[in-house]
Specification:
The protein has 225 residues and is α+β, with helices and mostly antiparallel strands. It contains nine helices and four strands, in the order βαβαββααααααα.
Length: 225
């Protein structure tokens, strides 16, 4: 199987991390987002959405990080995607929650307009309003995540066992480190992220994120939570 990805990509790293932890062998093809390779016709023929990741398994091609995680977990019979109907539905629910609410507002509404020049609004007033809105929504989602989804007892998003929802959600949540956010104000989220950071392949998979995103932004002034 081949995975088209980029080592900094928030949507690629959950797949790379899960594959590493589950012992799934993948051939990696880097799509250089920094040079705009995703917009070239050659890659657009692979994924017309011009995004990563993309999984190729023989003549089967699959896009979207969440779908790829589910496919890989099913392919190897991983307990991280339980077969029980209700437990699986809970994992799906958590993944949808991150994709449709948390990631949209925390990353695209709050983080990315601050750290990526191409996502900065051209008008200062619009930029400030965008970040203010994203901050307000991010605070809402973090409160829900801390108090309701994880809570004081759960080690992971769906209880005491790691699932593919944790791989997806944790990578999205640590994006806050790009502007120096520790999320220490959310003790249950912090505890959960510590559990994820303890994974054997966490440091290696996230190395590029820290090198090319977190480190260059240290000391810069950002709107914070």
């Amino acid at each position: 199987m081949k995975l088209y990805h980029h080592p900094v990509s928030t949507t690629s790293r959950p797949v790379v991390l899960f594959a590493a932890e589950a012992g799934i062998a993948l051939d990696f093809q880097v799509v250089d987002l920094f040079t705009g390779e995703q917009y070239r016709p050659e890659y657009a023929s692979i994924n017309p959405s011009r995004q990563v990741p993309v999984l190729e398994d023989g003549d089967f091609r699959l896009t979207e990080s969440s779908a790829i995680l589910k496919y890989l977990a099913d392919k190897v019979g991983s307990p991280a995607y339980p077969a029980d109907l209700r437990r699986r539905a809970r994992v799906n629910e958590r993944m949808d929650w991150f994709n449709t609410g948390f990631y949209r507002d925390f990353a695209y509404g709050f983080l990315y307009p601050q750290i990526f020049p191409f996502m900065r609004r051209p008008d200062d007033a619009v930029q400030a309003a965008t970040i203010a809105w994203g901050r307000e929504r991010a605070l809402h989602w973090l409160k829900v995540l801390d108090e309701s989804l994880i809570g004081p007892r759960n080690a992971y998003l769906c209880g005491d066992e790691i699932t593919i929802a944790d791989y997806l959600g944790a990578i999205m949540a640590v994006g806050g480190e790009s502007i120096g956010e520790s999320l220490a104000a959310y003790p249950n989220v912090s505890r959960w992220l510590d559990n994820m950071r303890a994974l054997r392949h966490w440091a290696k998979v996230n190395e590029a994120f820290y090198r090319y995103v977190v480190e260059p932004n240290k000391g810069k002034a950002f709107a914070t939570l």
